[in-house]
Design brief:
The protein is mainly alpha-helical. It has two domains: 113 residues, P-loop containing nucleotide triphosphate hydrolases (Rossmann fold); 54 residues, P-loop containing nucleotide triphosphate hydrolases (Rossmann fold, 3-Layer(aba) Sandwich). It is 47% helix and 4% strand. The protein is built from seven helices and two strands; from the N terminus they run H-H-H-E-H-E-H-H-H. It has a two-stranded parallel ribbon with strand order 1-2. Helix 2 packs across helix 3. It is flat.
Length: 169
């Protein structure tokens, strides 16, 4: 370890001690600690599985692994889980989102029903066709056929910007 990593390790250890002394948790703890507890104590897991018999998760494509394990643990008993998500719209990888979660859902819940929402109400045909061309290049995806009853729309122009300020103009 270099000096920065050693100092960071000490700061993190002290941070964890402060949380513990104050009987507090941070956001990550709110996800990780229940999963750890459920793995250690099946009675507690069963209690919460009874309490949350029906689970709905929106924007599932943006869940991280800790959220995935927590939801999977809670829903494993009754399998009354509904997720809403789009594998082509995962934009939070920088925050830990794992698109693999949406693909793993198919394996974890093999008797699931899949409902594709393929009609687009917002975009023009040209924009949707362009988006569809990009999406179809994804190596791993849930197949879908996007369509709209909207008008064709204007010709699409590609503009390359070098900075975010330039993009905002």
């Amino acid at each position: 370890k270099n000096d920065f990593e050693k100092k960071l390790s000490l700061v993190y250890k002290e941070y964890q001690n402060i949380l513990k002394r104050n009987n507090a948790m941070d956001f990550d703890d709110l996800l990780v600690k229940p999963t750890e507890l459920f793995n250690l104590n099946n009675d507690i897991l069963q209690k919460y599985q009874e309490r949350f018999k029906y689970i709905l998760v929106d924007e599932y494509q943006d869940t991280n692994r800790a959220q995935y394990f927590l939801v999977r643990s809670l829903s494993n008993r009754y399998k009354n889980i509904s997720i809403v998500g789009d594998d082509a719209q995962s934009i939070y990888k920088w925050r830990g989102a794992e698109i693999q979660n949406i693909f793993d859902f198919e394996n974890d819940f093999s008797d699931r029903q899949l409902f594709r929402l393929e009609q687009n109400y917002r975009s023009t045909k040209k924009i949707l066709a362009l988006a569809d061309d990009v999406i179809k290049k994804n190596k791993k995806q849930i197949e879908k056929n996007l369509w709209t009853e909207n008008e064709d729309g204007e010709k699409i122009h590609l503009i390359e910007c070098l900075t975010d300020r330039e993009e905002g103009i």
